[in-house]
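Aggregate trends can hide what the representation actually does to any particular protein. For completeness, the protein is quoted in full, as a sequence line and a line of structure tokens.
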Amino acid sequence: QVQLVESGGGLVQAGGSLRLSCAASGRMFSINTMGWYRQAPGKQRERVATMTSGGISIYADSVKGRFTISRDNAKNTVALQMNNLKPEDTAVYYCNVRSVTYDYNYWGQGTQVTVSL
């Protein structure tokens, strides 16, 4: 079992920045993808950014150029630096770790990000 603990959400004005962090603990093979998803009220959960253990990252078009994902494989952590936040970024953000190779998929409890005008 893997536990994911997120931190760093909060309330910020449009144009501001936040940094989300996620620490994974438990048995987790090193080959995996870690990342962030978000879900706004009334909408489906969507991928924000993910990064493989080899360093390949994918971003949603809506956040390219504003958000940066990073991870520390040795510490099993992943972070999301969010700059120039917009009201449409308001959502619950979830940390995720998954591996097709080893067949697992875990979610954090979610952290609220609210961007005001």
